[in-house]
Write a structure and sequence with these properties.
The complex is a heterodimer.
Chain A lengths: L11 E2 L11 E5 L5 H5 L6 H8 L4 H12 L5 H7 L3 H5 L11 H15 L18 E5 L3 H12 L3 E5 L8 H4 L8 H12 L4 E3 L7 H4 L15 E4 L5 E2 L12 E3 H9 L9 E5 L3 H12 L4 E5 L11 H9 L3 E3 L2 E7 L2 E9 L5 E11 L2 E4 L3 E2 L13 E2 L2 E2 L12 E3 L10 H20 L35 H4 L12 H8 L13 H5 L5 E3 L5 E3 L9 H5 L5 E5 L3
Parallel strand pairs in A: 3-4, 3-6, 4-5, 6-19, 8-15, 9-10, 9-15, 10-11
Antiparallel strand pairs in A: 2-22, 7-16, 12-13, 13-14, 17-18, 20-21
Helix pairs in contact in A: 2-3, 3-6, 4-6, 6-16, 7-14, 11-12
Chain B lengths: L48 H16 L4 E5 L3 H6 L4 E2 L5 E3 L5 H14 L6 E7 H7 L1 H10 L3 E7 L40 H7 L4 E6 L3 H11 L6 E6 L3 H4 L6 H10 L6 E4 L2 E5 L8 H5 L15 H18 L12 E2 L14
Helix pairs in contact in B: 1-7, 3-5
Classes of the chains: A alpha/beta, B alpha/beta.
């Protein structure tokens, strides 16, 4: 009947011969955990949003942005201030250079602000039905805002109380404008408030138990909240005892950054010394340069490789003419000069005094020796315990007092915006479960898609696209943003450098390379093995670029 | 091959398909409308390179001829595993001839079609290296010198695999086969013997000669397609690893073929009218040992002690290929007119801001 060209006879087709019976192992499509996702403190599904962005075009960018927003309400802020553990972990770093995940995130975040994409496409404010539960968030920093955002998405009504006059916490008072422009931050905070979150500024919570209702363990102060999340941060600059003359000018770095944000320009003098080696020290030194200091010198008691400051910040500070004094401590301060003692590292890497002193001329000394958390809000709450200046919390960020959760800089962890945002999300998940009387849903953690599971032959050679930077000479005079954004085509290029580790991206290699035609194409980017014919040779698994096929022994 | 400069698409043209590419720039094998000239249920071993290579090449010819082709097949693995009576895996008009006369039967089919005035139907004759390099050599040379309108495809797995891995004229030096055992001071196949049929074909000055491997699908498809642009005798020589005869893992079939080209042992090039016109550049060069170690037929070069003397001779032959065919980026021998560059990623400076 309907025979192919020039065929007249009906031979039996070999399709009657089910060669699948030969198989001892079968290929299975798997979904691994990409190292970027594994490293992200905010739990973003980076591989997935890059996959969506790779299509290019506004619709794809919006879909990608929504994928970020499922985990993190601050893509544009992240794209500026995150220290990018994802890029450190990126497998592509072992091939040529890591994918510029952060720069793509910034591009998507900026697109969203520019286009005014709402959190919910259809303007329905939540993705779960309203629960009628009310949650108090203390502190409008990244952690509190993140918790408020995720709790609202889960159907709870949230009130944030913050002692400051503006929301943002350390994003505003700890991160200078040249790293995070305020219009960007305000736009992303405003988007959260537009979801129906109530924000009460200039409000100090003096008695948290009075805010809670009885079911949440409140003591009947008329409180109406069913649970509380406390994230007041760590913004009290640590002091060190430094013998100082009457006219010595000493100031802590956190206060300096706060004052600059409030619009005052403290007189620091021509030569400014900053004591400390963390990110705040870098920010203080760079801010001092912008305030007109001709010299800004960072005094740190160890060496560069032991500095807690992130590399990017140190590099940018050096570019701006900030100088460093390694292996030095400040032992005394006087008008116009400091006494510095040289240090040496002992065999355990700890700095030891050498007894050698020298003078360093400085009009002002900024202390950037770390920050303490303000724990007053939880002081005396039954069950809440503290250790090492931080609040003790369990795996789900709940304090010893049921219904009171804590996160951000005030609990033991790395103190970064991204970690704080991650705490907000985690706490929201735990609070939601606690309010519903269930267990928090444990996030899926499949096996890590390590570099050796990839077949990198298939990825086109492509060097990274880099973001433009403001020239150093133009940086010191202004608080303009230092790092620029990618353009549309470079952002797309950068997204497409993603190797999609551990997750199929629809390259058809398995479909093409099967000697037995035993891979069936379903819809775009999905496949199925035809077990009637698959002999289990394993070519599909070996030639899968991203390691998304595993060979599994057949049961005998 | 014509080179197409495109924007960067993650996997460029290395993988079979690419969801970001327009359909017409994807490989034929990535399409669910491919002909599947060799369908499933065939009895080739797990990971058979020949089954893969035959489908790659003939699906491309099917597309180039809009489905109007006839294949003539010499005896050998490909014939045995695809057509045990009463089954066939072929979804094309297909004739089985003897071991040595596929080129002559191909000539006959082409001549008959010419007599019938059916210039629209094209002919492919194909066989393994045994049927091509040794047994069918006279018929093949005749086909070339008459310049009959046949594309001859040799699937080279470097020995008589179907009958139990005996040495052929295409078996490389030092390889162990059933008839070249790994014994004595010079174990395995002897150096200085065997034939290079692509060069023999070029010596006939036929319109088109090309080599390819199953490791570079896009290149293979381009060449099978390009071959159909010509009339007259054409020769396509495809390296198809044999897990059974080479003692390699079935999963490594494509990897082994890739290392054969990346080491320089198997030069991938194309020639027109007896002149080499392009060669595929080595992308990530490897020493020959990377290729040899994956195959049990070379195990005697590494155990009980490493035969550095033999390995050096093999490396020297790879280096000769690299120099002769200009396989490295910085080499541009005068006789190479163009470098094959399909779908190479570009990102030009204006795209970078």
């Amino acid at each position: 009947m309907d025979k192919p060209f020039a065929i007249t006879l009906d031979p039996g087709s070999s399709r009657a011969n089910h060669t699948g019976a030969w198989r001892t192992e079968r290929p299975v499509y798997v979904s691994g955990l990409p190292p970027c996702n594994d490293a992200c403190p905010a739990g973003e599904n980076i591989q997935q949003w890059l996959y969506l962005a790779e299509e290019g075009g506004l619709a794809a960018y919006e879909a990608a942005w929504r994928q970020i927003m499922a985990d993190n309400p601050f893509p544009a802020i992240m794209g500026r201030v995150c220290y990018r553990p994802c890029e450190t972990a990126c497998n592509r770093g072992q091939l040529d250079s890591a994918v510029g995940i952060n720069s793509v995130e910034r591009y998507l975040g900026d697109q969203a602000i520019h286009a005014g994409w709402p959190v919910f496409a259809d303007n329905t404010p939540v993705d779960a039905a309203p629960t009628g539960k009310r949650v108090l968030v203390v502190g409008a920093g990244p952690s509190g805002l993140s918790a408020a955002y995720h709790l609202t998405r889960r159907g709870h009504s949230v009130t944030i109380k913050d002692a400051g006059s503006q929301p943002g916490g350390m994003m505003r008072y700890g991160i200078p404008k040249y790293r995070l422009p305020r219009d960007i931050m305000d736009a992303e905070i405003e988007r959260i408030l537009a979801m129906g979150v109530t924000l009460e500024l200039n409000t100090t919570v003096a008695d948290i138990l009075a805010e809670l209702n009885e079911a949440a363990g409140g003591h009947g102060g008329g409180g109406c909240f069913d649970a509380a999340f406390v994230a007041v941060g760590a913004h009290i600059g640590k002091r060190a005892y430094i013998p100082a003359g009457d006219s010595a000018k000493i100031m802590d770095a956190v206060s300096l950054l706060h004052q600059v944000e409030d619009g005052t320009r403290p007189m620091l003098g021509r030569r400014v010394a900053v004591y400390g080696g963390g990110n705040t020290a870098m920010d203080a030194a760079r801010t001092a340069r912008r305030l007109g200091a001709a010299e800004a010198v960072v005094v740190y008691r160890r060496t560069r490789d032991r500095m807690p400051a992130h590399d990017i910040e140190v590099e940018e500070a050096l570019e701006e003419g900030v100088t460093m004094r390694w292996l030095s401590t400040v032992t005394a301060a006087d008008a116009g000069s400091l006494t510095i003692e040289k240090m040496r590292l002992d065999e355990t890497g700890f700095p030891q005094p050498t007894g050698e002193f020298e003078e360093l001329s400085a009009d002002c000394l900024l202390l950037a020796l770390g920050q303490d958390a303000d724990l007053a809000v939880l002081d005396g709450v039954p069950g809440v315990t503290f250790s090492g200046g931080t609040v003790d919390v369990d795996r789900d960020l709940m304090t010893g007092h049921p219904g009171i959760f804590a996160g951000g800089d005030m609990v033991p962890s790395e103190r970064t915006v991204t970690v704080a945002v991650g705490h907000g999300k985690k706490a929201a998940r735990a609070i939601d479960a606690w309010l519903r009387g269930t267990e928090p849903d444990a996030p899926q953690r499949p096996a890590l898609a390590a570099y050796d599971t990839l077949n990198t032959w298939y990825y086109a050679d492509a060097p990274a696209a880099v973001r433009p930077k403001l020239e150093a000479a133009r940086r010191t005079g202004t608080f303009d943003e230092v790092t620029g954004g990618l353009t549309g085509s470079t952002a797309l290029f950068e997204a497409r450098r993603c190797m999609s580790c551990g997750n199929c991206f629809g390259c058809d290699n398995c479909y093409g390379a099967c000697p037995d035609n035993a891979v069936i194409k379903l819809d775009a980017g999905r496949y199925e093995i035809d077990l009637d014919y698959c002999k289990g040779c394993g070519i599909c698994a070996a030639e899968c670029p991203c390691g998304a096929i595993a060979m599994v022994p057949e049961e005998t | 091959m014509p080179s197409t400069r495109i924007k960067f698409y993650q996997v460029g043209s290395f993988a079979a398909g690419n969801r970001l590419l327009p359909e017409d720039l994807r490989s034929i094998q990535s399409s669910d409308a491919r002909a599947n000239t060799l369908t499933c249920g065939h009895r080739a071993c797990q990971g058979c390179g020949e089954a893969l290579g035959a489908r790659y090449a003939l699906d491309a010819v099917m597309r180039a001829t809009k489905g109007k082709m006839i294949a003539v097949n010499a005896t050998g693995c490909l014939e045995v595993f695809s057509t045990p009576f009463p089954e066939t895996s072929w979804q094309i008009p297909w004739l089985h001839s003897l071991f040595g006369n596929a080129p002559a039967v191909g000539s006959g089919v082409a001549t008959a079609l010419k007599a019938m005035g059916r210039s629209d139907i094209r002919v492919v004759a194909q066989g393994g290296d045994g049927g091509t390099v040794d047994i069918g050599m006279a018929c093949l040379s005749g086909l070339f010198e008459r310049n009959d309108d046949v594309l001859y495809i040799c699937y080279d797995n470097q020995a008589y695999m179907n009958t139990g891995v005996q040495r052929s004229g295409a078996t490389p030096p030092a390889a162990r086969t059933a008839t070249t055992p790994a014994v004595g001071p010079e174990p395995g196949n002897a150096f200085g013997q065997g034939k290079n049929v692509p060069l023999i074909a070029m010596a006939h000055e036929i319109p088109y000669v090309a080599t390819a491997t199953v490791a570079d699908l896009r290149d293979l498809e381009d060449k099978a397609t390009r071959a159909m642009d010509f009339h007259g005798a054409r020769y396509l020589h495809i390296l198809v690893p044999c897990p059974l005869g080479w003692g390699s893992s079935p999963a490594d079939t494509i990897k082994v073929a890739r290392l054969a080209t990346e080491s320089g042992l198997f030069p991938v090039f194309e020639a027109e009218d007896g002149q080499v016109v392009s060669s595929a550049r080595i992308r990530r060069q490897v020493p020959v040992t990377d290729y040899l170690r994956l195959q049990a037929r070379y195990a005697h070069l590494f155990h009980p002690q490493e035969r550095t003397d033999v390995i050096e001779r093999l490396q020297a032959s790879a280096d000769r290929n690299i120099a002769r065919f200009g396989l490295l980026e910085d080499q541009k021998p005068a006789h190479i007119e163009r470098t094959r560059l399909t779908l190479a990623p570009v990102h030009d400076s204006d795209q970078r801001r």
